[in-house]
Amino acid sequence: MAKLGFRTLLRMALRANLLQATWNFERQQGVGWVYALQPALEALYRDAAERRSRLAEHTAYFNTQPTLASLALGAVAQLEEQRSQGTGPDEVAMARVKAALGSTLAALGDRLFWFSLRPFAAVLGVLVTLARPETGWGALALWTCYASVHLGVRLAGVGWGYAQGPGVLGGRLRGLLEAAVRVLAYGGCIVVGVAVAWALAPGGEPRPIAVQSALAGGLGLGLVSAQRSRPSPTQWALGIGALVLAAAWLRGF
């Protein structure tokens, strides 16, 4: 009876870093998904024809938030383990499980990584840059804050998914991830407040009204859009352009 070991799960986690490398409109993450899952299929299916059949099956459409995709990889690897023993789901049921996991993980992962952790890390980097403008500590703080969580979840997520199976988000882990979203939202507001105060009065000397207006406008835009998937980057660019024009106009007074 084949069981997936630590080295196989680690290889899957490392390969998950390339999940988006072959993203396309037809199958989206499908090819990257099967590349990450391949070590498990090689360990479970000794027959080459059966292994090729499973590989072809898993190249089908799949899409979710890239970091939390590791949880789905582990859960599907567990199902494939059962399948190799003759007790797991068939091809249709496996497709349904992947679709359900993909949509659920995307809903939570987008809020956690795109709309909470990424803005928090960016503002933290700005704050550190304001405090130490002559160094590169701001960029390092941004990278460390985001990458430590992102890579940690990506590497450990395969093991979590393998241990819990398709119900990986049905228990304590979901509560922890939801709590992380709330903590990052509150922490982000605090860091934004400190960064704005620092920018408005560096060393106790207030900045000109144009700078204060630009910061107030940027803060307002950030608060409005922080928890939304829109505006798009184009809309952001247009908004910032309008803000810069307003700041230039105010500077004339």
Task: Write up what this structure looks like.
The structure is a single chain. With 253 residues, the chain is mainly alpha-helical. It is built from nine helices and no strands. The protein has helices at 6-15, 30-44, 48-57, 69-84, 91-131, 137-164, 172-200, 209-225, 233-251. The chain is elongated and about 75 Å long. The model has no long low-confidence stretch (mean pLDDT 85).
Q: Give the biggest sheet.
A: none
Number of strands: 0
- Structure class: mainly alpha
Order of helices and strands: HHHHHHHHH
Q: What are the low-pLDDT stretches, counting only 5+ consecutive residues below 50?
A: none
Q: Ends: how far apart?
A: 79 Å
Mean pLDDT value: 85
- How much beta, percentage-wise? under 5%
Rg, Å, rounded:
23 Å
> How many DSSP helices?
9
Instruction: Give the overall shape.
Output: elongated
Percentage of residues in helical conformation: over 70%
